[in-house]
């Protein structure tokens, strides 16, 4: 009489034993066999994990309850590089593919069969590594872009967990279960250092990060500008002002200057400018500074004036005639600062019809009033100024006329009344002088030239 089929499930590692006995099963007494019949079992004792690229030690089936005569994979597949000996059941080779492989192996001897499901874990050769990208500086009160981890050489099929391993995230940021960092930082602060650990099976990797939280708004850089210096005189030390910086001592890691400084000046790594300018002129340049991920720039203008004083003069204007256009009266300005235009201003009143150009200093026009007109012209060149006095004389168009009462008869030895001249078309404000140009006065008479 044949016994019914029996199935047996044993403990770890999972063994599914299928006993197919051709006359008896289990350990019951079999009249046909005349004895108790044991059940066939196999018991692979694999290591917790193996390293890809390294030959594994023999994985033996350790059969009991009989001697299997054949082995075969019935579910899943062995890792690449490993083989199952169909006769002995021994697993050998050098795995080449990391991952978790669940394999069902059947052993049989014709009388019975058994299946054991085993798990082989193949680890990558290279160590597990964890990193995060940049930037590492964020602005307070603004949500950061999600910072995702970069995990390399993880074992496929094994989940990875993440945890804070040291320090604290900046307030407002949090670590997700997938290792991502997200949130809105709330407090400006210098670099905050913390560590995150990734665990993949039995292997771990740690990334140490440093996040700086900058204040809202841009970094601001400024210098005193424009500033006027004198050729040949030291400028002292010109210092930059940087505002809205990240607190906590993050230094300005670089300062750059674009375009040329005035000759004789030098630019230092801390942004200060010093020296003695040697060439006058107007010099405009840009300066840029960087703090962490933020930068700022500004434009600075330095004016270097000549060491000699500014001088202004006009040619003697001579006597002008009313109603006649005058040639342009152009000023001469010495020791101007190259690159700076002078402007001109008048103190006093020019003759009617004449005008002073504030941009060129030229006096032009046609005088329409006679007289004497003293004025002062001031030239301003940057922060320096010079002035000069000029007198414009406008004479009538008619010739100067002079008359005395003549002829006259006087008695010798008798005083004569004062004989006064009569002047016509004299220029107002201009003194008149007199001279005897021909003949001679009678003895006893005198001539007053004024």
Tell me about this structure.
The protein is mostly beta strands. 0% of the residues lie in helices and 44% in strands. The protein is built from no helices and 38 strands. Strands 1, 2, 5, 6, 9 and 10 form a 6-stranded mixed β-sheet that branches. A hairpin with a 4-residue loop joins strand 3 (29-30) and strand 4 (35-36). It is rod-shaped, with a radius of gyration of 55 Å.
Helix proportion? under 10%
Q: Give the strand content.
A: 35-45%
The assigned structural class equals mainly beta
Give the uncertain stretches in residue-range form. 1-32
Mean pLDDT: 87
Shape field: rod-shaped
Radius of gyration: 55 Å
Query: How many DSSP helices?
Result: 0
Give the N-terminus to C-terminus distance in angstroms. 173 Å
What is the chains' assembly state?
single chain
Strand segment count? 38
Major sheet, described briefly? 6 strands, mixed
Topology:
Elements: E1 6-10, E2 15-19, E3 29-30, E4 35-36, E5 50-51, E6 70-75, E7 82-84, E8 91-93, E9 99-108, E10 113-123, E11 129-132, E12 137-139, E13 149-152, E14 160-167, E15 173-175, E16 181-183, E17 189-200, E18 203-214, E19 220-222, E20 227-230, E21 237-238, E22 241-243, E23 254-258, E24 265-267, E25 273-275, E26 281-291, E27 294-305, E28 311-313, E29 319-321, E30 326-329, E31 332-334, E32 343-347, E33 354-356, E34 363-365, E35 371-381, E36 384-395, E37 401-403, E38 422-424
Parallel strand pairs: 5-10, 12-18, 20-27, 29-36
Antiparallel strand pairs: 1-2, 2-10, 3-4, 6-9, 7-8, 9-10, 11-13, 14-17, 15-16, 17-18, 19-22, 21-25, 23-26, 24-25, 26-27, 28-31, 30-34, 32-35, 33-34, 35-36, 37-38
């Amino acid at each position: 009489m044949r016994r019914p089929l029996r199935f047996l499930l044993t403990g770890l590692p999972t063994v599914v034993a299928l006993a197919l006995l051709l006359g008896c099963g289990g350990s019951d007494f079999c009249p046909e066999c005349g004895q108790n019949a044991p059940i066939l079992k196999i018991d692979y004792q694999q290591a917790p994990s193996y390293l890809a690229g390294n030959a594994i030690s023999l994985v033996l089936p350790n059969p009991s309850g009989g001697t299997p005569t054949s082995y075969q994979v019935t579910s899943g597949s062995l890792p690449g590089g490993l083989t199952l000996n169909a006769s002995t059941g021994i697993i050998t080779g050098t795995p080449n593919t990391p991952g978790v492989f669940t394999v069902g192996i059947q052993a049989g001897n014709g009388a019975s069969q058994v299946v054991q499901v085993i798990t082989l874990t193949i680890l990558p050769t290279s160590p597990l590594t964890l990193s995060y990208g940049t930037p590492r500086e964020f602005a307070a009160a603004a949500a950061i872009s999600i910072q995702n981890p970069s995990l390399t050489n993880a074992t496929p099929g094994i989940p990875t967990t993440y945890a804070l391993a040291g320090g604290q995230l900046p307030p407002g940021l949090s670590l997700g279960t997938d290792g991502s960092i997200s949130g809105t930082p709330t407090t400006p602060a210098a670099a905050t250092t913390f560590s995150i650990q990734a665990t993949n099976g039995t292997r771990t990797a740690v990334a140490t990060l440093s996040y700086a939280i900058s204040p809202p708004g841009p970094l601001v850089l400024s210098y005193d500008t424009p500033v006027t210096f004198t050729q040949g005189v030291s400028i002292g030390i010109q210092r930059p002002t940087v505002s809205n910086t990240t607190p906590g001592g993050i230094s300005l890691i670089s300062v750059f200057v674009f375009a040329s400084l005035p000759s004789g000046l030098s630019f230092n790594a801390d942004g200060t400018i010093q020296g003695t300018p040697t060439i006058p002129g107007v010099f405009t340049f840009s300066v840029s500074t960087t703090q962490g991920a933020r930068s700022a720039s500004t434009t600075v203008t330095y004016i270097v004036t000549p060491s000699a004083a500014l001088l202004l003069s006009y040619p003697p204007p001579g006597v002008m005639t009313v109603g006649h256009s005058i040639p342009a009266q152009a000023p001469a300005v010495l020791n101007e600062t190259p690159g700076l235009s002078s402007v001109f201003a008048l103190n006093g009143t020019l003759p009617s019809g004449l005008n002073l150009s504030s941009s060129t200093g030229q006096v032009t026009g046609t005088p329409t009033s006679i007289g004497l007109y003293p004025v002062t012209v001031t030239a301003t060149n940057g922060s320096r100024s010079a002035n000069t006095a000029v007198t414009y004389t406008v004479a009538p168009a008619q010739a100067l006329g002079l008359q005395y009462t003549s002829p006259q008869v006087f008695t010798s030895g008798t005083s004569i009344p004062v004989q006064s001249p009569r002047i016509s078309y004299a220029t107002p404000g201009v003194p008149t002088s007199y001279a005897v140009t021909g003949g001679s006065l009678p003895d006893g008479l005198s001539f007053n030239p004024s």
